[in-house]
Amino acid sequence: MKTNPLRTSVIGSYPFPGWLEFASQNLDQFGPIDVAEMQEDAAVAAVRDQVASGLDVITDGEQTRLDFNLSFYGYLQGIDLESSLPRRWGPPAHDQRGKHDIVGTLSAPGGLGAVEEFERLKSIASDIVPERVTLKASIPGPFTLSGRLNPNKQYPDRFAITEALLPLVREEITQLMNHGCKEICVDEPSMSCYAHKEDTRRFVDIFNRTIEPIVGKTRVCMHMCFGNFKGRSVGGKRPECMFPDFLEMKVDEMHLEMATLNFAPLELIKQVTDAGMDAAVGVVDVKSYYIETPEDIADRVKACLKFSPADQLVFAPDCGLSQTARWASRQKLANMVEGVRRVREGLKL
Predict the structure, then answer these.
(1) Separation between Cα atoms, residue 142 and residue 22, nearest integer Å
(2) CA 30, 126, 223 angle in degrees (round to 5)?
(3) Residues with Cβ within 8 Å of residue 162, at least 6 apart in sequence
(4) β-pairing, 77-80 with 100-107?
(5) DSSP SS3 for 115
(6) Domain coordinates of the chain in residue numbers?
(7) In the prediction, which pLDDT does 76 show?
(8) Cα separation, 151 vs 158, whole angstroms
(9) Residue % of the chain over a pLDDT of 90
(10) Domain 7-66+109-347 maps to which CATH number in 3.40.50.720, 3.30.70.790, 3.20.20.210, 3.40.190.170?
(11) Helix (H) or strand (E) holding 78
């Protein structure tokens, strides 16, 4: 951003406090007022951690979601939620998440919940967040959301399901903008995971139609990664296959996972910034418990500056932090901000 070079941000999710993990497994022992209180307290904890790290952009940590996208299915009508996991035992991985059956027309008459989350964040922020900090909302895109729904006669394939979900997501992000959200991130990791074998132009069309009502009216971001369920990837980790087509996405900021890729494809950020977007670079590995030092981060920032100007660079973790322990997340964010600060200071920005 021209007014905030070398910006520091997060993707969306943040680890639950331990007590919330326990409570979420024992909800039958709590009433609705108890649950609302827990949600509020967890969001306050996530916001305080992010503010303490010194970030320029924060979220509510997605504390009221079961996962970055799993809770959204609870807002959908026309589906039968899965009753059991396909695999319960053994190493944790993506095949332990099953799919929901579609039993009617897909709709979300009450919205997808992101607006209520943002209103809660605004309320919390009014007391504890500095004015310089931007509040961001994140929501999964329709192609990613379609991945856990089984096709049927009405929706015969994943793209048909995507088309049914697209207006629901579009309406939610429009309402986020109408409620004063200045930065909205549409997460589409499934697009980056499947770009090696699907029509990337089709992905671009889907994405641009999703965000069309808010383009030019608020800051629009896109997050891409190769999966992070239980700290594990699922995609092929080849971001090159997304380019140059993904450069046609009408976003202000495009986020690329880089730390877990050892920064091998770092030159791609030049394509992003040359296309007029800001490049958000993942400089913290959320799948590793190595705590990046401020020196590590500073070196990574300097490497990015060889390809793109400071006023088009944003730095963030590779993905959301929900799969990383809270103690590690705190330190990773603090060191990320400090490393970026040192480079800013050196450049007198």
Answers:
(1) 31
(2) 80
(3) 142, 143, 145, 146, 206
(4) antiparallel
(5) helix
(6) 7-66+109-347
(7) 93
(8) 7
(9) 74
(10) 3.20.20.210
(11) strand 77-80
For the record, the structure tokens of 73 come out as: 């299915």
CB 284 within 8 A of CB 336: yes
What lies within 8 Å, CB to CB, of 81 at 6+ separation is 73, 74, 100
What pLDDT does 137 receive?
Answer: 97
Q: Which range among 222-236, 256-270, 328-342 shows the weakest confidence by mean pLDDT?
A: 222-236
pTM of this prediction? 0.91
By C-alpha distance, which of 57, 44, 64, 60 is closest to 10?
57
- Condensed to tens digits (0 to 9), the pLDDT of residues 179-229 reads 999 999 999 998 988 888 899 999 999 999 999 999 999 999 999 887 666
DSSP state at residue 7: E
φ/ψ of residue 175, rounded to 5: -70, -35
* Range list of H helices, the chain: 18-24, 32-53, 114-128, 142-146, 158-178, 189-194, 200-211, 268-274, 294-304, 326-347
Tokens (6 digits) for 2: 């021209």
Beta carbons within 8 Å of 237's beta carbon, 6+ residues apart? 226, 260, 261
Alpha carbon distance 40, 124 (integer Å) = 8
DSSP string across 213-236 = GGTTTSEEEEEE-S--BTTB--S-
Instruction: Return d(Cα 199, Cα 183) in angstroms, integer.
Output: 28
C-alpha–C-alpha distance, residues 248 and 290, integer Å = 35
